[in-house]
Fold these 3 entries.
Entry 1:
Amino acid sequence: METNHFETDRIQQFNEFNIIPAIRRRLNQQYLQRRVERCKYSYSISGDLSWKEVSPTLLSGDDTTVCIPRRTFLTSMTVSGFLFPLLKACKNDGTKYPSLKAFIPGEPDAPNPPWIGPINATKILYAELKDVPVTAETKVTVMISRHRPWDGLQEVRTFEVQRQSGDPQDSTTRTYSFIPPFPGDFRDTQLVFFQWFVDIQQSADNWLLLTNSPRQSFRIGGFTSEQTNEALLAIQESILQRFDGPSDPLMIPAVPTHLDRCLRGMGVAYVRPQVSGPIALMEPQLLFYLKRNDGTFRLVGWGYGQDHHGLDSHPAVSPIPWEAWFIHEAGWHPANGGFLVTPPPADEDVPRGRAEMEEPPLPVGFNGVWHPRIWDLHIFRRDVGIPFMEIFDPTLTNITGCENWDQDWFFHTPDLDVQPRG
């Protein structure tokens, strides 16, 4: 089954490393593949600083010293306290390192249920740290973002997580559970990214990254990319049977939104005025056409809309990914088929503004129809492969006679929406 492009676009490129970019760049430039000889244990630190990726090499040297790469977090340290049993285990079989497992909610081996149900229902992330010495002091944090992986600290929340109270204090296994303080920030159909980190205390003011989980993701509501693809194919089959190839879209009935002007990447847009109420995926409100040489109209895409009343009004229609929706800006549709945007005033956090909109005064000498902001979803036809969800279809950008549209007409939700509260 072909993977939905939202999954590949937002996950694949971020699976190549497991820690924040600043640390990764620093490791690549200074630390990787550095070794200190003359020590009994030499470590090659991998890109994610996971103990699982550390390979001990037995050399001649003092049993009481461990060496790690030059100019890393430490240059050398005496084996004592928590490190002694760890290195003793390494000497015996080379496999006993602290390991961290983070569970995706709802997976078969996960102790935490899937994130579904009412927006204020409790939602839990769970992690398990094994083979850590009993006396070790650790600090555990989890990073979490919505819709796409973070590429900077401004797009992610970091929470410190306490060890579960029921854990035996003399156990080498520690369990951690995290409940977001604002569960309503996480809605059905959202894509959630998270990553766990464990630091270990070296001295009163010195903490060293011990291990971290991979950056992982899951879809709230439990549906998969494969289920989205299957639904898109079924929707396309039904809609093509009903709306492809009319001699005149007005007979559907459907009314052009920009007269007969063709918009680059979309085609000529028509709205079905009789379709209203809750979104039904088999009943699109928008139809996009290109005229064939024989005079009939080829359906190249379709769409859905819902009134925008702030980010809390975002549609959640399973199995459509949350991030497939975008905003069609408020504005006037003049009689010439164009569009004049009337965005709300910008504020410090959201340059495009987020205030509730009311119909502005009609410009002098202007004749047209105004609408407030609208949540939009566009799906474009694919005769081979999975229908394409995006503002415009890149395969339709070179159609003769189509006009450019201003990027202020359509845009995805502000970056602020990536960051849950905390």
Entry 2:
Amino acid sequence: MVSRYRSGGSKGRRGAVLLLVGMALAVVVVSGGWLFAGKASAEAATTDTTSVIPPGRDKGPAPDPDLAKMFSDKKNCLSCHGDKSLEGLMTIKRPDGSPIVLYVDRTGLAGTVHRYKDCTSCHTADPHDKKSPLNKISLSAKCGSCHEYEYAQYKDSVHGKIQSATNSDAATCTDCHSPTGSPHNIQRVLDPKSSIYPKNVAATCAKCHNNPQLMGQYGIVERVYSSYMRSFHGKSIELSPDQSSIQQLDTATCVSCHGSHNTHTISTGDGTAGSASGTDDLLATCKSCHPEAGPEFVTGFLGHKDVNSKDEPVVYWGGKGFKYFSRFMLGFGLLTVATSVSIRSGSYIRRKLKRGKKGSEE
């Protein structure tokens, strides 16, 4: 009898201790996650997103043994330009020093929208007999030989105007329409894997606009990508499923406000929604999605600028106050739960110990 009670008391004590330890660990984990959540989100907002397309969305179709047959190549260009062993020999430099690779990765050809166009359609019948400038100006002009309307808009855009033979900073056709910047794997706009599919547009623009060093050269200091992703529009896009249809992704992205091929600076003031310059143009931009919007709709709009205590003190301090108040309340709630659990666990353990001691005495 004594042995049985002693064994029961020992098991009770072990169970109580394990319960208490488990609860304490749970409180520590929850508290740690809460304490470091703000720091992690702040670091994420300032992280350079040069690799911007989500994992698994930029790999394209799986390799196919008959891949070369899926791409028109009457001159057999890929016998050299598709040879992986020659890749190093086919990397040259533009006048501004940026590299250009003449090697063509066959794995990207099956998914390109131009896979049924022969190489000579863009490179002429005898490309080796004609010297190409190999800069972004010639590249956009070549695309414009078919896409005339888009090219006319691009030439008048902020990107097209600063293009030169010695400056390849500004985006051209392949920087946006290809996930790798190559003209040989341009993807359809409506392809969910496309770098300009609505869900991927902000990340594509961030390849340049989330680069502080590059943007600093042109006087752009706002963290446009992180501020967009913190907005309602950015969160709506981010939380939408990866395979959302185009109809489901009806939230504003960069091109909804700034235009695509006809992107202008915000100081253009040309009266178009794409320029988003001044109150009138900004209102016109918002009305393209919010037709009932009035002048008061854009009064407090800050664009991509961070809220600060000087320009918007009420919004700034209100946000700060809510941030710390909510954290205090959450911490107080966790402390209350932990205290309650400790008290109840202590009572439970004392009862078990008392029963075990009483059993051993008997």
Entry 3:
Amino acid sequence: MSSPEGTHAAFAPGVEVPPRETTGITARRLLGVPRQRTRTDPTGDDMTPAPADSGTLAFVESPVQLLNVLEWAHTAQATALTVVVLSPHDPMTRGQLRRMAELARDEGHTVRWEEARGGPTAPLRTIGGLTPLLRRACRIVLGDPFSRYVQLLLTLTRARELVVVDDGTATMEFIGQLARGERLVRWHRHGTGRGARDLLFAPFANTARRRLTPAPEGRRRRRTIGLFSSMPVDVPPGVQVTANDFAWTRARFGPPRLTRGTDLVGTSLVETGVVDADRYLEAVRTLARTHGATRYFAHRRESTDKLRRLATETGLEVVRPDLPLELIARRGPIGRLILSFPSTVVHTLPLALLGTEVRVAVCDIDPAWLTAGASPRAQGFLDGVTGTARDVQRLHFTGEPAAG
């Protein structure tokens, strides 16, 4: 079976092709950190006058975040948008980000690529170069409120409008923690979060959380907090929600050509230490055999060793997409049935593929699959991801349809 447009096959059984990174965007060297002279009120908010409208500044660290920034810009009809890519180390993520950056430029947006993790002095250079933009921006759009980099940058802005776009299922956890007034901690993280680095960074994290918390009614120069999401969330009072229905994706691509086969979507739950590798591979093998799946779309964070083993033991063609799966599926070709474990795509693919005959099914994670080191919150969170998905079929771990 041929790979869809915009992908390349990483592994077929017995074949090895290492992940690759595209090229073409040169990182800027940015020197110097300007001295800050600002006054803050007791809540940590900057009290200097808000800047004149100089456009919107968006920060992204993953391809899905950049996709959702483009969806937000399409819905909000935003102009003067500058997207700052805080580039990670992972080659697959970098490759997808470069492809997404090309699409953003095609839409008329400015893309600024920052090698934000390129050595010990990179954060200082990056922050110093971005500070003037942060001080002038009237609106900040961000994709990962859990990111320490983003939290640090939020302490430098006077923007009175902050918008959070989806960063996958992490959005659900962010809104829950924000509503409960809790520290921002990723759902799969295990431990107290009170290590030396956490304590050192705590003042910045606390300031960022306050910036992301809606200000009380009647406050002077009240900032607005927006959420652009396709996830089912109950937001705290004061957060303005706009639904992400993937209108840009559907207008820009497709409809796709459908194959007669079944495609399986991978997850990085093994890599994050949540699910045991052997249990996961057995579940993939069972699903592939039960539903006749022939292709496995790998998550960008799945390890090369695991994918090599998966291809050998299951006979599946492993495909490593160079764009987010929502775009790959919309461009096609794609199977008439897509199988997934609890992840973002069980919420986003039905929207991106609206109007097609593609069905999406989600396989629950059995508690027996979890590792001893998995976060105590893991099972409940994964059950919530599956239970709140709309327009999908639920499967037991045996691969059979759930009763009722």
